[in-house]
Amino acid sequence: MSSRRPQYVFTSFPRTNWRLLAQSGCSSLRAKKSSSNSELTTVDTIRFNQQQQVDTAPLPDDIPKVKEVGASSAPLLSASYFIGARCREYNDDFMQCKTDSAGRGEFDCLKEGRRVTRCASSVIKDINTHCLEQFRAHWTCIENRNHQLYQCRPMEWKLNKCVYENLKLEKHIPDQRPGVTPVELRPHMIYADVAINTMEGKPFIPPSKAEGSKQAS
Q: Which PROSITE patterns match (predicted)?
């Protein structure tokens, strides 16, 4: 009869920090007993206790109310450059306020934050009013393509054209090299899953970039 003691092992999750699992709410960890000649066994069950935390306390009455933007990540990404074009001054004021507030930006910069929110909401509203079809096609593509902008250039070009014609807002990516075609205007995306079909449209070049390209040449 062997005097070797039975072993209790946790082997189903290599390199797992069991202490962190326990601290994060992991419960019901049960190990199987195994002998030295048997295969390593696994953990029976792992259950995590999760619940959504919602703070239902309203803001104080002295803080003016502002309606949230109410858009998910894909529409916000689609409209982000136009939001930046219209709301740059408000964004700069908000960031400057946070820099000057020495860690109290959440309290000291509420007024600037409300301006940013209202401006962003106005851009979303105007795009929905004048370019709903193009906007929806673009953000739907972004949503379905892992939020990778280079996968959705044809839809983006149509949206850029519509927004410029109706709202006079341009998409501008800062700090791009002079004399080089901006990345959003290139007709070929080497990392895209599907090659761009020329029948789907061509890059929209706003007048400001067209004049800049003429001067560079």
A: CHCH
